[in-house]
Amino acid sequence: MAPTVWIVRYLWLIPVLPLLAAGIGALLKQRRRGFAAAVAIAAIGLSFVLAMIAFAQLLLNPQRLFFNFPWVQFGFQWVKLGWMLDPLAAVMLVMVTFVALLIFVYSVAYMHHDENFTRFFCFLSLFAAAMLGVLIANSLLLLFMCWEVVGLTSYLLIGFWYERPAAAAAAKKAFITTRIGDLGLLLGMVWLYGQTGTLLFYDHGAGCMEQTALSALAGHVVGMAASTGIALLIFCGAVGKSGQLPLHVWLPDAMEGPTPVSALIHAATMVAAGVYLVARVYPLMSASPGGALQVVAWVGAATALFAALVAVTQDDIKRILAYSTVSQLGYMMIGLGVGSVAVGIFHLIAHAFFKALLFLGAGSVIHGCMGEQDIREMGGLRKWMPITFATYAVGMLALSGFPLFFSGFWSKDAILHAAYGWNISRVPFYLGSIGALLTAFYMTRQVCYVFFGRRRRDPAPEPIPPSEAAVSDPHDAAHESPAAMTVPLVLLGVMAVSLSFVGTPAWPWLQSFLEMRPASLDFKQLMEAGLPQLMVVSSLLVFAGLGLGWWIYGRRPIRHAADADALERMQPAVFRALHEGLYVDRLYALTIQRLAWFIAIASNWLERWIWGGLPWAVSAVTKGIGWIDFSLDRWVVNKGFDEGCNGVADGGRLLARLQDGRIQHYLRWVGAAVAALALFLLLGHRG
Amino acid sequence: MRLMNAPFLILAVVTLVGACAATMLRGLVHCALALAIAFAGIGALYLNLGAQFLGLAQLLVYVGAIAVLIVFVILLTRGADSESLSPAARPVAGIVVATAIFAILAWAVIHSSSILSSGQPAPQTTIRQLGAALMEGYVLPLEVIGLMLTAALIGAVIVAMKENGQ
Amino acid sequence: MTPLAGCLLVSSMLFAIGLAGALTRRNTILVLVGIELMLNAANLNFVAFWRYGPHSGAPTGMIFVLFSIGVAAAEAAVGLALILAVYRHTKTTDLSQLTGRRP
Prior knowledge:
The complex is a heterotrimer. Chain A is mainly alpha-helical. Helices cover 70% and strands 3% of the residues of chain A. In chain A, strand 1 (65-74) and strand 2 (77-85) form a beta hairpin. In chain A, helix 4 packs antiparallel against helix 5 and helix 18 packs antiparallel against helix 19 (427-451). Chain B is mainly alpha-helical. Chain B is 72% helix and 0% strand. Chain B has helices at residues 6-24, 28-49, 52-76, 91-111, 127-136, 139-160. Chain B starts with 5 loop residues before the first helix and ends in a 6-residue tail after the last helix. The relative contact order of chain B is 0.07. Chain C is mainly α. The longest helix of chain C is centred in the C-terminal third of the chain and has 31 residues, at 60-90. Chains B and C meet through helix 1, helix 2, helix 3, helix 4 and helix 5 of B and helix 1, helix 2 and helix 3 of C.
């Protein structure tokens, strides 16, 4: 059915425009930087405009619109693909295109000194295209295809500086770890298709997220209900992509990529794709009687606390933010698990803005410190980089959930409120609360290390590692970053603050929009059951965290870079364990990596000796036959021929002696012949 | 032996001895002279057999011309090798062949001697008859041999002529 | 032994001697000498048959010998002229050196 609304019919333009920009960028020479950047920014800008139009369309008339088309035919069945526009997709589209646009502009300045500037923008555009494709997909198959391209571009961008072994290894780790999750997603997809016969989400009642399919799935029981099994498998994909607990190991290492990559992919968009996936298949998840959502909530809670603990002990400015991202993704999963789509997505949107802000701010700090990423080497930067400091502070407060004015407060509060009211268990609520405290704590620690205290860096320039030389300016002193970097920071800061006002319980506009209900401004809703007490408790937690952080790190900042962390001095063993991420990486290296290594060696042996042995044997036989032929030819045929020729030559030489030019010899022969002839004649005559 | 009269025997021996000498002597001139004796002997044999004209013709041509010619040539080619040349490196083979031929011929003759008749009177062929035969029956060979002799004459002269610059 | 047989034996012996001489001597002139002897032996053969042969009376044998003598004369003249020419060219009459092969 062709939709009447033109924006839905042309919704496919939103991902295709950046795809075209990527295609053009792939063909450009490295020299044409300005053109490459302009094409990419223009494409994403246009996509942003289209996304705003789609959003506006839905503001006027909230509904779910979609457009399906048949793609390939299997026998009698058609596999269909399609795209859709509903409030969830619209909100995500606006967020992704806006953040992407800001980060593209930021990258122009950040990657200015890099020689692979054009390639960077090509990959960024490709990523944007794939991510937008994930958002508008109406078919699980289309979503999966774009999901895979997102993973590919993540690999390309993490390993952008591929000459560095650490970056190449991190890219590989990211890809393989998410692949494990994607395997679960693929299995779930196949099972779903087998059970329902369609992969379209919404198809006038025939889609797999619609009632008939869902009841069929819930009824079909194979140990557990089919819908639970499928939901859990699909959640595996989300676990991989969003870095939940067993598969989180790739995210901290992914910080090897350039900072805009970290901001775009690993803070705002790609990691959010997992959360979006869960939101997309939420009807399936909530319909499962086995409690797939419970698993989601528990995994999220464990992740949230674990990552917050580890983040407290990190020294790299980006790794702190990476672990923070893992932790916040855990919160989103809690929100989805215990509450509803709106709760989780609200935190997702808010987190996208302030985490992108924090990453870009970190990038600005790194740029200004000429490539230095260790926070112990920094200090007192608020004097040199005021704009960066101001925006970073806004982001930090938003992340910590500072009350009332910052979006993080309202979104986290919504999650905690839903967790408090979860009828299965209160443990996620407690874990989430401790996590909130820790969040405030480690962010304060980071800010104190970086911006306060005395300048710890040696004023004389140190030799810059070659990867960072591409990023940093050849200036001696730490300096504020150019406008192309600070303007996006300011814009994101504004969004981080203003978003708070669309999600408060007093006017739950975003949640209502997502659930397609009308929203009303009603301050009485603030007084809902338990809500004010919760707001007070969470505010207290935030203040406690901030205060604790200030007390330990702000009052007595460390003097020198080599000084030990205050916490480390208190509890060295615990600190060390947390610093190593509770040794999860080491565990994986010992078990799974060893296993994969053995399998690889065994396969190699098989390949070389058994499968390779067969052609080798055939070739050896052929070579043997060839050798026999050759020998025969050489010793029998050639030799025989040579001997024959020699014989003929000898015979000729012998006969030549008859013709020696001596007449008397000829005469002699004639005489002998005459005698013989006469003899024969006489004898014959006689007889 | 009664049928072979004594002159025939003597002449035969002389001829044969002359022939042997002609082929076996070391000195070339001696060979030529012995050859002349052999020719003479053969002429005498012709006379003995009743062919008068032939015998005299033989003496005239062979002894008078050919033997002399041979002596001339020997003398003309004396410069290079004054000494007579020794026989060829391996004379045995030639002698064996010659002996074989003689043996075969002799055997043929002896074997068929019974068939051969003899004791007939000698034919009387006068010169007139010879001339008539030449002019009538054998006129063609006569003319041809005249041509041939002319050609040989001219040819010999040309071949032996000193070339310019030589 | 009939007279014919005797004559034939003599001519055979003469022929053999001539052949031996032609085959064994190194000097070209002596080869010619041998050839002349062989020719003479053949002539003797003819005359013997003319005298003692079956068809006595016809002058065929004599005529033949006459022509043979003529031919022999011509041949001897030409042959000796050839020997002279060769001698002038190669300064030798040694048959073993006149093989016609290039050295």
